[in-house]
Amino acid sequence: MRNRIITSIFSLFTVVFSAMSQVSFDFSTAQRGPVIGPLHYGIFYEEINHAGDGGLYAELIRNGSMEENSGNPDYWWTIGDATFSISSKNLLSAAQKRAMHLNLTKAGDGTRNIGFWGINIVRGQTYRASFWVRTANNWTGDVTLTLESYEGADLGHTTVHVSEAGQWKKYTAEITATGSYQLGWFAIRGSKAGTIYLDCVSLFPPTFKNRENGMRRDLAEKLAALHPRFMRFPGGCYIEGGNRYQWRHTVGPVEERLGIYNSHWGYPVSNGMGYHEFLQLAEDLGAEPLFVVNVGMGHGWFQDYQHIEGFIQEALDAIEYANGDVTTKWGAERAKNGHPAPFNMKYMEIGNENSGKDYNERYILMHKAIKDKYPGMHLIANVETQGFRNEIVDPHLYSTPDRFFNGYFTYDLYDRNDPQIYFGEYAVTQGGGRGNLIAAVAESAFMTGLERNSDIVIMSSYAPLFIRTGWQAWNPNAIVFDQNRSYGIPSYWAQVMFANNRPDKLYRVTINDGSSPVDPIQGKIGFGTYRTQAEYKDIKVVKNGVTLFEPDLNNLDGWNRISGTWSAEGGILKQTSGNPDTLITCGSPDWTDYTLTLKARKISGSEGFLISFGVQNRELRRWNLGGWNNSTHAVEADDFIEEHLAGSIETGKWYDIKIELKGSEVNLYLDGKLMKTQKRLKGGRSAVDAGIDESAGEVILKYVNGTDKPVTYTINSGKTGAVGTVKTLTLTGDNPNAENTYEPPENIVPKAGSVQADSAKFQYTFPAYSVSVLRWKK
Ligand code: AHR
Fold first, then answer.
1. Which of 48, 425, 443, 472 to mutate to test the pocket of ligand 1 (most atoms within 8 A of CB)?
2. Is 90 exceeded by the pLDDT of residue 305?
3. Which of the four pLDDT bands, split at 50, 70 and 90, describes residue 718?
4. Which of 190, 456, 528, 541 is deepest in the core (most CB within 10 A)?
5. 687 CA distance to ligand 1 middle (Å)
6. Which atom belonging to ligand 1 lies closest to the Cα atom of 265?
7. Among the atoms of ligand 1, which is closest to the Cα of residue 398?
C-alpha cells in the first residue's frame, strides 16, 4: 500500500491510518474549499437500450400506432377467426401513416397485443385504456377490452360501446386487474361481425405522480432516489443522424406525433415520451431541465451549412416552448398541452460529442443567436471552442477502473480561467463487468475529485441511465429492468450515496504523499499514425546534454514494429499502411527526463502524427497531432487529461516536433512553439473529500478505498467534535467483481450503520473495495 500524507496549512482535525502504514491526513475546517453549487448531482437520460419505449415511458402497448409492420401489424395477433392487415387510407392524422384493418367474422373475434416483451398485470391495479376506432358499413357495437394471460385467462375486462360509425373516434376506459400475471396480453374483441379500423391503442398502469401520459413508477422512483439536480435529455448519439430526434414532432396529442427509427441504437421510438413529457418529468423530479440540441453534426453524420439556420430556429423554438409566455406561438402550445406556467429551462447543450472546425463555427453561431434572444440561458459546449469564451464544457469519459482512480486529481490541475465543467457522461466501461463493485468504487474516487473541485466542475452525470434486459446497446447502465422488476447496479448506488450526502461547503484537503507525489514519466519512444501515411526523420533523444539515441534510419535494427507497414531508408522512417493505430517503438523502458526531437511529414491519409513517449509494454502515452479527423491535437494516455487544442496537419509539410520530459511533466512543442505543458496524474487507489452540510449541521467525510485491504484510521475530529453517534454508510461487497442481479437485487447496496465516538478521537475501519460516508454533528 502506498504511504500517503494529506496535509493542509490550518489543520483542525486529523485522520490517521493505524493499520498497515503510518499515513495520515489533516484537513482544515478554518480554510474552506469551494462551495458546492446547486447542480451536483444530475442525471443523463437517453433513448438507448429501450430506456423510454418499453421502459420509463409507462405505455404498455407496443406498436399501438400500427406504424411498425413487417407485414401485418407487428406485436399484434388475431383472435378467433378475425383477420387483419394494414390500411393506409382515411387515416387518423397526418402523423399516422397506417392503421389496423380488422375483420371480425363473429362475436368474440378480435386482436391482442403482447406489449413490450409481455404486459405486467398486477391484481388490484387499475389500468387506463384508450383506442381510436373507425368502423365500416355502419358497424356499431360493443368492444371488450381484456387483460389476459398468455393462455387467454381473463384477468380483468371492461366493455365500451362504439356508437359512431365511419369517423375516427377515441374511446377510453378503465380496467381493474382481478389477477396478476407478468407476461400478459391486452385483447380487443368485438360483439359482432364487421369491419373496424384501429389506431393509437394505449394502456397505462398507474404512473409516477399519476401523470396521464406518464412514467413507469418503479423506474421513475429510482430516478427520484437520486434527487437529481438536473436532467440532461434526450441524448447522446440519439439526437444525431438522418432520423434524428426533432422535438417539434414530439409535442401535442400522441396521435399527432411522428415516431422515428432510432438508428443509432437500433429500434423504433414512438415519441409518446416527448419534449413536454421530459420537461414535466424534470419538474416532477425537482431537476433543472437541460436540453441537448443538434447543430447539424454527429458521429459520422453531417448536414451542410445551408441547414444551420433551421437547427438554430429549432433550438430557439425549444426555449420558447419551455419558457415562453402563453402569448408566444410555442408558449401557447405548451399551455394547450397542459402546462401554462413556464418550465423555466435555463440550460441547453449545443451538440453531442462534436468537435473540430465545423463545430467551432456552428457553436459560435448558435450560441450568439440563443444569447441574443435569451441572455439568461446557460449554454454548454461539447469541447472548448477556439477564439470564443465558453461558459461550460462537457467532457466525457468511458474507461478502465485505473483511469478513474487516476482521474481523482484531474481538476486539481485545471486552469481556473478556463470554462466551467459539466462532466456529462462517465462510467467504467472496461473491466467493470456488467456494472460491478470495483467500477462503482473507481467512479466514486473520480467523483470525489469532481466534488473537491466544485468551483470548476459545476455538474456531472453518469451514463447511460437505463437498460431493458435483453436489449443491450451499451454496457454497463445504471438501472436494469424488465417488464416488472428493476435494480440499480453498484454505480447507481454510488450515485445515490453522493447525491444524498452532498456537503454545501467543502473543507480544503491537500494531498501529499511525502516524497514525490507523482512518479516521473518513464519509458521508450514510439511513432505511429491513424489511417495516415507519414515520414519521420532527424530523430534524436537527449538527456542532460548526452545523446541517448540517434538512429541513422537506413534499417529497422533495434526498432520494435508493433503494427503498420514500416521501412527505414535514406534517413527516413516511413509508415505506408492505411491502418488505424500503427506503432513502432525503440529505446529503453528506463528512460526518464529526456527530450525527443524529430521532423514529421504527412504523405496522405485522414489524420496526422502519433508520437509516443514514456512507453512501457502496453502502457502508451502519445501526442496525437491532427487526430479526430485532423481537427485537434491532444495527449492520449490513461494518466493524462485529454486536453484538445484545435489544429490540423497539412500534407507534404515537414513539421518540427519536440517532446520534453521533466519528471512528471511534459512540454509539447510544434514548430518551435510550446503548445502545451501537461502533468502526469497518479491517483493511487484511495480518495478523500470532506465538507459540511449546513442545514443538517453535520460534517460529511467521504472515503474511497480501492485497495484489497481494509484500512483503520484513528479519526481525530478536533473542533468538529464527533462525540456521540457517527452515522456510517458503506457500499462494499465480497469481491471487486461482485454485481447486482434481479435475485437478490440487494447484493451491493449502501448499508447504514453507526459508531460511537467517546471522544473527539475515534477509530474507524474502511473495508477493502468500499465507498464510505461518515456523518457527525458539528
Ligand atoms: O452514453 C452512451 C453514448 O456515449 C452517448 O450516446 C454518447 O454521447 C456517447 O458516445
1. 425
2. no
3. low
4. 190
5. 27
6. 6
7. 4
- Enumerate residues lining ligand 1, CB below 6 A: 46, 48, 235-237, 352-353, 425, 463-464, 474
Q: Give the DSSP letter string of 359-400.
A: HHHHHHHHHHHHHHH-TT-EEEESSPPTTS--SEE--EEEE-
Tell me, in angstroms, the distance from the centre of ligand 1 to residue 654's CA.
37
Parallel/antiparallel/unpaired status of strands 76-79 and 110-113? antiparallel
Q: What pLDDT does residue 716 have?
A: 66
Angle among Cα 600, 601, 605 to the nearest 5 degrees reads 125
Q: How far apart are CA 68 and CA 262, in angstroms?
A: 13
Quick one: average pLDDT of 132-145?
Answer: 97
CA 27 – CA 229 distance, rounded (Å) = 28
Separation in Å, CA 309 to CA 290, 295, 329, 681, 721: 21, 9, 19, 43, 60
Min mean pLDDT across 166-170, 550-554, 577-581, 755-759 is at 755-759
* Mean pLDDT computed over every residue of the chain: 91
Taking the C-alpha atoms of residue 545 and residue 591, their distance in angstroms, rounded to an integer, is 14
- Residue 396 CA: nearest ligand 1 atom is 9
d(CA 70, ligand 1 centre) in Å: 29
724, amino acid identity: G
Of these residues, 353, 451, 643, 660, which one is catalytic?
353
How many angstroms separate the CA atoms of 512 and 515, rounded? Answer: 8
Q: Which residues contact 122 (CB under 8 A, 6 or more apart)?
A: 177, 180, 205, 484
212 catalytic per annotation: no
pLDDT digits (tens, 9 = 90+) for 159-173: 999 999 999 999 999
The answer to whether the CB of 597 falls within 8 A of the CB of 540 is yes
Tell me, in angstroms, the distance from the centre of ligand 1 to residue 399's CA: 13
pLDDT digits (tens, 9 = 90+) for 362-380: 999 999 999 999 999 999 9
Least confident span in 5-9, 417-421, 529-533, 716-720:
5-9
Beta-strand ranges (E) seen in 41-164 are 43-44, 76-79, 83-87, 99-104, 110-113, 119-121, 126-135, 141-148, 154-162
- Rounded CA-CA distance 136/484 in Å is 38
Backbone angles phi, psi at 771, to 5 degrees: -120, 125
Q: Please give the Cα distance from 499 to 100 (Å, whole number).
A: 47
Q: Read off φ and ψ for residue 491, nearest 5 degrees.
A: -65, -35
**Residue 759: pLDDT band with limits 50, 70, 90:** confident
Top-ranked range on mean pLDDT: pick from 392-401, 510-519, 678-687, 740-749:
392-401
